[in-house]
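Milestone M4 deliverable, item 7.
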Amino acid sequence: MKHPLTGILPVAPTPFHDDGRVDEDGMRRVIDCMIDQGVDAICILANYSEQFVLSDDERALLMKISLEHAAGRVPMIVTISHFSTDIVVRRARDAAALGAAMVMMMPPYHGVGLVPAPTGIYEQFKAVSDAISIPIMVQDAPLSGAPLPVDLLCRMAREIENVSYFKIEVPFAADKLSALIEQGGKDIVGPFDGEEAVTLLADLDAGATGTMTSAMFPDKIKPIVTEYLAGNHDAALDHWKLCMPLINHENRQCGLRAAKTVMKEGGVIRSDFVRHPLKPMSERTKARLLGLAGELDVLALKWGK
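Output delivered:
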């Protein structure tokens, strides 16, 4: 990438048929819909893509389909997280070979009882950086249970060539982003938040330059970022107030199912199936989701109609 990536970098859902098979055509339609939503980049194979229920062969297929279909229209970010350093390195090389603009990875973990020491975390990121020449985004999320203190993140940014982007989605994310930016300086190229942008305004106040949301309605969330970065803070606040009810409902009630449900309703994909042991959302939760999305007139709700 010639310039630092900013803006909105949503996670693409992985569509399945009602019988649980990967929907290849649906994946292509998801990519097209997200591009039409005005996203600045697309992240695939992340937690909100149900990466934890995909086989290795399915991962490889989805990566190939997504990167080939995007065809350079937007930068593509491939999530490569795994406990095994050898597997993470292989995934990184495969992503780079297919044209990924960036990889994203969590620190190695396997349940809260199997988390390596800081040295092991550092060494895994260093191994990936040595294997590729594209940026690495560090995903700092409670899901891993692996602590990533600011001093470790700054050391990685300073010493590991390709570690330069950070997705911070821990409690009090704004405070951590502020400390990261202050201590890391020029080595912190891309400070981002996550969690469906539920803390976005505070995170922008702290210095974040973008957000990684779901794919449900980036067309409505993006103006919060663009207006803020342009110095139009009142306009950003107005957009935030409009989006917050739907952001909150997705974050607190729906999770990764929300984008699929809205995309199915809008004809982007045929099914909102999630693989077991995940369960469909209740009709009560779904009705509120679609009602809030309809009030905002989100693009995904009408894209395929």
